[in-house]
Amino acid sequence: MTDSPTILFVLRAPIGGLFRHVVDLSAELEARGYKTGAVADSVTGAEAAETIARLDAALTHGVLLTPMPRLPGSKDMSALSAVAARARAIGAEVIHGHGAKGGLYARLAARRTGAKSVYTPHGGSLHYRWSRPSGMAFLGAERLLMGLTDAFIFESAYGKRAFEAKVGRPSCHTAVVPNGLMPGEFEPCTSVPEAEMADIGFVGELREIKGIDILLESLRELKSESGAPATLVIAGSGPDGDALKALTRSMGLEGRVRFLGRQPAREVFARSRVIAVPSR
How many CA atoms within 13 Å lie on the side-chain side of 100? Predict the structure, then answer.
């Protein structure tokens, strides 16, 4: 392997914290002389077209979008073939998978191409339990794939502990590398008019596991400092967006909740008095 190997990142959904992690990591590697590229899901990728376009221009080998199913199925084979073909085309020496599906493709593609495989879990399979059939399938797959992994990079000590508790302790090299913040993110947020402020803000992927329904249920009982019903802004996109909007209407909260779609986190921070981080 060369001193500055060519690296191919593989991820399914280019949204949320996982995508932010890949964007930051690839940018810093490029700045240090590494040549990088990425492969992601073409369907989910449409939600982040602007960010993907910037990333495509920033990476030496750009971004390839190809269909990647969320759940296991026959279409995984074509996605795997696309990842392996891309790795060969750019001469990838390292294939770094992010998330359960990205990790699956990365390790199997590395096996096909002779590249080294690196895996960073981001929750994914770790949300499942061994006591359920789905958990046995996903966690069992994680355990089998450990033997095809050259290195694990965990985004937090908590993530490493969770993986070891549910899947097992890797026998290969492991490291914990927390994602950081850019210098500009420490600058004060631009203030917004009081009339545009919300009492509570949420930023993240719109998925059941995030517990946004719990936040909506709590909102029904909350009041602002003035005694008026508290308001909420929700920024993000995801598979449960329509269901959450329907839930908001069924609770009679449509006058107190605004769905902003994908927004820079700093803009949501600026217009929220409090940031809520619900979870299941």
Answer: 22
For the cut 80, the answer to whether the pLDDT of residue 2 exceeds it is no
DSSP state of 78: H
Strands 151-154 and 63-66: unpaired
**pTM (two decimals):** 0.86
The strand ranges marked E within the chain are 7-11, 36-41, 63-66, 94-98, 116-120, 151-154, 173-176, 198-203, 232-235, 257-261, 272-275
The fold for domain 7-180 equals: Rossmann fold (3.40.50)
In the block, residue with structure tokens 């061994």: 130
Q: Where do the CATH 3.40.50.2000 domains begin and end in the chain?
A: 7-180, 186-275
Across 148-164, b (16+ Cβ under 10 Å) vs e yields bbebbbbbeeebbebbe
Q: What is the pLDDT of residues 63-84, one digit of tens each?
A: 999 999 988 889 999 999 999 9
CATH 3.40.30.10 fits 186-275, yes or no: no
